[in-house]
Amino acid sequence: MDRLSGDQRLDGLERLGAYREFNQLAKDLDATAVEFTRDEKW
């Protein structure tokens, strides 16, 4: 698990900002997926 080594070089505030940005993106994707599955009648 070497993924974190890149994050450790980031400033704490940058990391927090990136986390919030990613979190918002994830929420948008979730909302899109929910709308899609609601529209699609499988």
Approximately how much helix is present in the residues?
over 70%
Count every beta strand, where a strand is a DSSP E run of 2 or more residues. 0
Amount of beta strand: under 5%
The major sheet is characterized as:
none
Structural class: mainly alpha
SSE order = HH
Query: Rough shape?
Result: rod-shaped
The tally of structural domains comes to 1
Rounded average pLDDT: 76
Radius of gyration, in Å, reads: 16 Å
Low-confidence stretches: none
Q: How many DSSP helices?
A: 2
The N- to C-terminal Cα distance equals: 39 Å
Explain the overall architecture:
- It is built from two helices and no strands.
- The chain is mostly helical and 42 residues long.
- It has one domain (4-39).
- The model has no long low-confidence stretch (mean pLDDT 76).
